Amino acid sequence: MPALQWRSRRRIASRVLSFAGSAALVASVGCGGNSSSGNSGGNSNPPPPPNFEFSGKVMSGQQPVVGTEVQLYVAGSSGYGSGATLLTPAVFTDQNGAFIMQANVTCPSSSALTYVTAGGGHTGSGSDNSAIGMMAAPGSCGSLNNSTAVVNEVTTIAAAWALTPFLGSGGVVGTSSGNQKGLANGFAGAANLVDVSSGATPGKSVPGNATIPKTKINTLADILSACVELSSTNACSALFAAATPPGGTAPNNTLDAALNIARNPAVNPAALFALVTSSSPFQPTLPAAPPDWTLAVTLTGGGLNQPGQIALDASGNLWVANYVSAVTEFSSSGAAISPTAGFTGGGLAQSYGLAVNQDGNIWVTDYTSPSGVNNGDGVVTVLNASGQPVSGANGYSVGGIFIPVAAAADTTGNVWIADFGDSTAAEFAMDGTAVSPATGFGSALLDGPVAVAIDANHIAWFANQSAQTGSVTSISPDGSKANTWPCGGDAPSGIAVDAIADSANAATGHLWTANYLSGSVSELALHSDGSATLVGTPYTGGGIKYPNGIAVDGAGNVWVANYRGASITELQGAKAAQPGSAVSPAAGFGSDASLIVPYALAIDASGNVWVSNQGQNTAKQFTVTEFLGAAAPVKTPLLGPPQLP
Predict the structure, then answer these.
(1) Separation CA 441–CA 476 (nearest Å)
(2) Of 572, 635, 640, 641, residue with least CA distance to 177
């Protein structure tokens, strides 16, 4: 049963509850799907008392929302934005906005994720407003009994942004059968943004090392409240017009409007901001319209010190290579797991590159090495999931390792390394055995490789930053075949692949390069024989400025870290009618998100985009920035081309 199918206002008005001391409308739902009721002659087997109680209030700022239909759902697992099931019968709020649900129900599992929707009703003595649509994401079903929640505009913003990839029209939350972890992490992200028990930002369990964009969240909540409270005669029509994406359908309730804004954060920011007034209920608010409506969380700690390449493990935890000889780990919720100085030892020194393998180990490239090891020309350190070295005291230096700077893992368990020092590549089996010879692979074809990605045919592709004319080099899985192909851009510094077939270009996938000096992104069609052909001319726009890191999300869209642009760029991918066209605005996304020299980015199974910053903030701290729900989810760890989990 889909969410937010609220009933007619006339029917709601006739069923508004007048709670006396929060008296309840009790629904009895039998475990087997049947219900029993009494009769005029009495019943010797009355229904059992309810074993589940969930209560709360639906509010708009400080005003109760009266007569709104409240529904409690369990998120679906049969597809994105689908399959949600009603856990208890709907109830309606009283004149104080209060509701209480009592029923005989059994959670599908204690970890099943629940959310609440509220539709219709009115604030104060106003007329019924069918445009009201709000939600909250209280979390696991096992913790819900005898708990309370506030549903308001702030909880709606938190849920809509953190759960964007999992939300369908009308507030239906669902994921694929293989991405329960991504959904759970999305719920945790919503909990960081808002305390559902009070309806205020931030969440009560937000990590101490995380900075939440409270003012921006309040501003978004006020944009919705203008329609919820009908603060002007055209409040809803103005909201729905501004929240309509180009070529899209206008929303007809505030929840769908919020979802449209989350999915199209660069559309009409000024028109939306104009709905906020000095008397809007959630304060403080932004002083002016933001460049976009992305929500970004800033993280510090855990040993961050000149962070470089980043990668995510199967739990959604983020791993960061730090140039100052340490590795940082953050939980999927942003808490620093690594110690204050980060994880150290095992040969970690001037670390640039990092990849997570399918066994959960973390492979780190070290630009230099301890005295007497590999002539000081670097090693590869492998850490286990606890951050402890498993590659010996001094890491691996076989297989041609010479000033390694980047790593990528394959579905076969092999890991490829870009050796900047002698322009070669190294390959390792999962157990650390060198596959490449002592001289490495690809000699005389690579030219200052700084990034590597693995395609669907297990071919390793390298970005040649030092080439006078931009190029990429492909090396076959066994290293026996290597070729170099022009990429059309100057100093390619980042590389990513997809597995999107393209008959027009006879492509089995595509390769994308971030061309640092030419300020562009190139697209190459990958062919079954291992060759590559440049598609059109390199793409610009959308804020691209000295691009460095690059990644492809689960929908095939391309994300770029703009090293000197203090922003990230999103481009349409190979599936689009116009690949390479900018989705982000002229300044990129996140120009207000405290990005400082963004270096690398990675996308997790919740659709969050994580960015490492090589510059320091005003407190002289290095940071990582997380853009909530901005992309399509990616199965982690990233092994070869990205997959929608």
Answers:
(1) 10
(2) 635
In angstroms, what is the C-alpha Rg of the chain? 26
Three-state secondary structure along 615-636?
Answer: EECCCCCEEEEEECCCCCCCCC
Give the burial class of 362: count Cβ atoms within 10 A of its Cβ; 0-12 exposed, 13-18 middle, 19 or more buried.
Answer: buried
CA atoms within 13 A on the CB side of 454: 24
Which amino acid is present at 391? Answer: S
Element holding 56 (H helix, E strand): strand 52-60
422 Cβ contact partners less than 8 Å away, ≥ 6 residues apart: 400, 402, 403, 440, 443
pTM of the predicted protein model:
0.93
CB 513, CB 494: distance < 8 Å: yes
What CATH code is assigned to 296-627? Answer: 2.120.10.30
Side chain identity, residue 402:
F
Location of structure tokens 């076959």: 476
Residue 3 has pLDDT above 50, yes or no: no
Give 411-421 pLDDT, tens digit per residue. Answer: 999 999 999 99
Peptide bond into 202 cis (omega under 30): yes
pLDDT tens per residue, range 366-377: 999 988 899 999
- Omega before residue 637 within 30° of 0, cis: yes
Question: In the Cβ-directed half-sphere of 317, how many Cα atoms lie within 13 Å?
Answer: 20
What element of type H or E holds 526? strand 520-526
Q: Helices 254-263 and 153-162, interaxial angle, to 10°?
A: 40
Could you please report the per-residue DSSP string of 321-357? EETTTEEEEE-TTS-B-S-TT-B--TT--SEEEEEE-
Q: For the domain 9-203, what is the CATH code?
A: 2.60.40.1120
Helices 254-263 and 214-228: angle between axes, nearest 10 degrees: 140
Q: End-to-end CA distance of the chain, in Å?
A: 24
Structure tokens of 622? 């290095």
Domain ranges of the chain: 9-203, 296-627
How confident is the model over 528-547, as a mean pLDDT?
Answer: 95
For 221-238, letters b (16+ CB in 10 Å) and e give: bbbbbbbbbbbeeebbeb
How crowded is residue 269: how many other Cβ atoms within 10 Å of its Cβ? 18
Asked, colleague to colleague, whether 9-203 and 296-627 share their fold, the answer is no
- DSSP class of residue 185 equals H
Q: Give me the numbers of helices (H) and strands (E) for the chain, helices first please.
A: 7, 37
